[in-house]
Structure formats: C-alpha cells, structure tokens
Amino acid sequence: MKNKIFSIASIASIASIASIVSIASIAFISCMDDWSTPNTENFAKEQITCPTDLGPVTMSISDFKDAYSNLFTQSNSFALVEDTTIILEGMVIANDKSGNLYQAVYLAEYDSVYSDSIHEWALVPNPGNVLQLALKNTCLHPFFQLGQRVKVNVRDLYVGCYSYVPKIGQPYYTSAGNLRLGPVLMELAQTHVYLDGDPVTYPDGTGTFVKPTAQLFAAELDDNDELWSNSRYHNYRNCPMLVNCEAYFHLNDTTIHLGYYYEHDDGYGVNRDFKVGSTTITVRTSTQNEVSYINIPPRSQRCRLTGILTYYSGWQLQLCDASCFEKID
User: Which pLDDT value is given to residue 4?
Assistant: First the structure.
C-alpha cells in the first residue's frame, strides 16, 4: 500500500516553512462584508457544537485511519466506537459552501511550522491526510469555515466508509431499504464536536492576514503525477484528498453545464470525464447547486480544478465550490 507524500511549496509570504504538504497555488479571498456574514459565533458554540472543550487530543487522524483500516478497505462498512474514548482534531479544508459537498466537512491533520520570513509559527494542514465528518445539516459552512480547527469525540459515534471514503457518521436506511453510513445528527454534534478557537488566517504579502481558500490548502498534482495512473494509491491513506489539477474535459466541442438535472443518476449526481495526462478521471457534481451550473468549455480549453479526490473504480473529483473552476489561457 502506498500513500502520497507531499512537500510544502509556499503560502504567500510564509516562504521558509519546512516539510508537510504541497501548497503551490496562492489564492486568497477577502473578508466578507458585514451584511453577508451571519453572526454565528455564539450560536455555533452554544447550539450547533459543544460549548466546552472535549479535552486533550488522544489520537492523530493518520493513526485513527490506520487503527480502523479494516473498515476503510471495504466499500460499505462501519462500526460503533464504544469501548474507548478517542479525541481527534483536524482543520477544515473543505465544507458545503456551494452544496456540491453535501452535509459534510473535511478535516485534515495539521502541524505548526516556523516561517523565517515572518518570524512566526503557522498552522498548516496536510491535504493528503483527511477524514470526512458527516453532519446532518445543509448549511455547515458558516460554522465550519476553512481553517477552523475541530475536535471530535468519536466515542458512541460510528466510523467507517461508503464508496471507500473514510468518515465519521451515523447509520441510516435509504429509500431502497439499504443500510448506509450517513451524517451524524446535530444533537450528537452538540456533545461530540467542538470548535477549537478561531479559523486560521495567513499573510498576503502586504502585512494583512486573510482567510484561506481551498486552492491554498490543496496539494498540487501535475499531469504526470504517478498518483493518476498507479492504482496502488487507491487506499484509505490517500482518500479523501484535496487537490489542484489542470486538464481537459473529454467532451464534444460544445459548451454544457457540469450537472444538468435531467442527467442525474440514482445519487442525484452527474459524471463528466476529465483527461489528466493519460488518465481519465470522473468529475462528479451534485445537481441543482451553484457548481452544477458552471459551463464546461470545449475540449481544447484547459481547465484548473480544485476539489476532493476519492476513488471507487477510479479517481473521482468533486469541486469544493464555484470558485474552484478556472479556465486556463
């Protein structure tokens, strides 16, 4: 089994950070205006999540994934954590801002690294060491913002996977009567999930600290990266993963949407082929959200995408939000 190793490139003016992840794309968003930002601080901590600290972290995300690897090597399996108290902590690197990532946030293991350029320590997530936290809510992003550190007490929650994606969740029956690992009910989040401090910010080179973006946190994968064509990377250690990649949509020379509703499958998603080097991956999009209305250019137009990479029979990418699609000149 192989796991992808990343090394840091840059985070704006944080130029001398030692090794953890690959962050080669610098893109920032400005702070939102007051009118567009819900006042969620007290509400989030008192109503959405646990208002008090869950205690010291007892296990890293990587060790947790190894400990439950027997569940993550199956396409649909889960188990209740009931005999031990496990406190995890991760940083939010993707959320449900656009609705394309549904009822879930993605937590990455992170570390503190020193920047010689600004003479300060910075918290940097590893986009290749990630766990999905599924939560029964369709508007998580105001509370679980990018850069927010989150603690989870896994005891009395379920851990497992669906379609090989390691996750923390809760079982439910589908309309077809199948038992699947779905999202944790919010009343359990009030006792098992804690927002640790404020979301991190990073210097933009002008002395101003700004909020991170998914593009900033993502690992940079080029066309020839071994991961695309080597199935040995299809394992729980590399799934899910936040990546930046550039390639071409393998379509006729027409412009169409990423996800027309009439094309949806039983999971209310639409698949498009994306040719990365010699490998074709699937770009999967949920219907009737902001991302689904993005126009795909003709195959001659190179595109840059940022999203959550998972696998089933092959690699599958879901864009984090509408800003994660870019046409390259």
Answer: 67
Question: What CATH number belongs to 218-328?
Answer: 2.40.50.200
Q: Which of 104-113, 239-248, 290-299 has the lowest mean pLDDT?
A: 290-299
**Secondary structure (DSSP) of 212-233:** --HHHHSEE--TT-HHHH-GGG
CATH, range 34-113+122-200: 2.40.50
What is the average pLDDT across 176-192? Answer: 94
What token pair was written down for 147?
């850069």
Share of the chain above pLDDT 90, in %: 69
Name the token pair of 246: 């550039």
Annotated domain spans of the chain: 34-113+122-200, 218-328
Q: What gap in Å lies between CA 168 and CA 147, rounded to an integer?
A: 19
Return the C-alpha torsion angle 153, 158, 164, 166, nearest 10: 0
pLDDT of res. 84: 87
Q: Are strands 241-249 and 302-311 parallel, antiparallel or unpaired?
A: antiparallel
Residue scoring higher pLDDT (47 or 113): 113
- Is the pLDDT at 301 greater than 50? The verdict is yes
**Count of Cβ atoms closer than 10 Å to residue 20 Cβ:** 20
By the 8 A CB rule, do 257 and 317 touch?
no
Same fold: 34-113+122-200 with 218-328: yes
167 neighbors 308 (Cβ within 8 angstroms): no
- Assigned token pair, 316: 């599958």
